[in-house]
Amino acid sequence: MSERKISVVIVNYNVRDLILTSLRTLYKYNSSENLEVIVVDNNSADNSCQAIKTEFPQVILIENDFNAGFPMGNNQGFELATGDYIFMLNPDTEFQDNAIDIMRDYLDQHPEIHLLAPKLLNSDRSFQLSAWRYPTVASVFCESFYLNFFLKKKNYEDKNFNEIFEGESFSGAALFFRRTLFDKIGVLDETMFWIEDVEFCWRANHHGLKCLYFPNARIVHHIGQSAKKNYNISISNQVFNKIKFFSKHGSRFQALVIKWISLFHVLFKIVLFALLSPFKVTYFRKLKAYMYTLPRIFNPPKGIS
Questions:
Q1: 14 near 43, Cβ under 8 Å?
Q2: How many whole angstroms separate alpha carbon 162 and alpha carbon 218?
Q3: pTM here?
Q4: Given the DSSP bridges, would you call strands 174-178 and 85-89 parallel, antiparallel or unpaired?
Q5: What share of the chain is helix, strand, coil (3-state, %, to 5)?
Q6: Which helix (H) or strand (E) holds 16?
Q7: Tens digits of per-residue pLDDT, 79-96?
Q8: d(Cα 36, Cα 96) in Å, to the nearest integer?
Q9: 236-249, pLDDT tens digit by residue?
């Protein structure tokens, strides 16, 4: 058994039942020796904190009195973490085997690798896409207007997701990496809410550090559960994230083009959900979220909006 310590960092926001399932399966399938679990709660109103304290007193719990968002919350956990390896994990995940032990052992044996992204599965155990090439102006346009059939290359359809491969960016729902990565590239960018995982991987790759898609470890991800709690936050930041990414890592021209694409995307969604809103309350909530997003496109807020 490896003596290297692992710190699991989970940011929770109003998904009490999901995080309890995640913690139960984490401890059930993975060796608890040399395992440190840190949960950062972003002011949940569903009794998450008390439930975690009652069932898992060994968990280190940070209770924020405000919603710090995903990147800031994770950075709070990283600051407390003492492990040689860090596992950034969503609360809406579920273990079905000893994925943590498998990833730790692989990094122990491969010192040239810095980050692993396990294979993610949907709630029905079907494959969930969790690896992408970096966004481009063309890919943002296609994603904005239901032209995803042009995104085969971006979505690694040229790869076999049952095999290990080196990739550009991966879902932040589950990222396992060496603590020394922080010394080389820093922590999550707190202004990059909803694209912080892609941006984190971008910095790792551009420092010449190897990041792998690693299907030997598999984790169930009940995707999008936290997003459903607040459409204003989830929808607005899905729009803002691409603007912020290109403003930081692209040219001024690219950033401007992305802003205009985003503007037309939001206007299109407003018309669409205005037509659909009489038929379903979810459509009405999404309409309000896009209306909330519209005036902020050319000057998106930093961090969570």
A1: no
A2: 11
A3: 0.93
A4: antiparallel
A5: 45, 20, 35
A6: helix 16-29
A7: 999 999 999 999 999 999
A8: 19
A9: 999 999 999 999 99
